Amino acid sequence: MQFKEEKYNTITKEKINEMVIKFYTKILSEDGDVAKVFRDKLGENLETQHWVEHIEILTNFWAMIALQEENYNGNPMMAHFDLPLTRDMFGEWLVMFFGIIDSMYEDRLGMVFKQRAQNIAGNFMRNLRL
What are the boundaries of each domain within the chain? Predict the structure, then answer.
């Protein structure tokens, strides 16, 4: 007998924070280039001050996207200009992000995050000339 895992059918800031933590936990469990960039920039422990701040920033960013909250005031593009990024890394990032979204949210809600993530990745690659 198989049990269906319940997925979220609403978006809240708390669920977004859970999503962000799961996503970065997933990244740090990997050995790829994306994980290396994050480890080099922020370290390997999500409980350090660098990671806590990053998680809060990204929680606020996605809450702005999904909930129209106004707590995010960063510049995501500028934060990525000094990183050694490649086009393939954005693909790797999207695959991991979509996996977390698919595991947490019902399809109709997941599309809110997935469509925006694809747009963001495309914009970043254009602006970073990748």
Answer: 13-127
pLDDT (tens, 9 = 90+) of the chain, 130 residues, equals 555 578 999 999 999 999 999 999 999 999 999 999 999 999 999 999 999 999 999 999 999 999 999 999 889 888 888 999 999 999 999 999 999 999 999 999 999 999 999 999 999 999 999 9
| pTM to 2 decimal places | 0.92
Buried b (16+ CB within 10 A) or exposed e, 2-40: eeeeeeeeebeeebbbebbbebbeebbeeeeebbebbee
8-state DSSP, 9: S
CATH superfamily of the domain spanning 13-127: Globins (1.10.490.10)
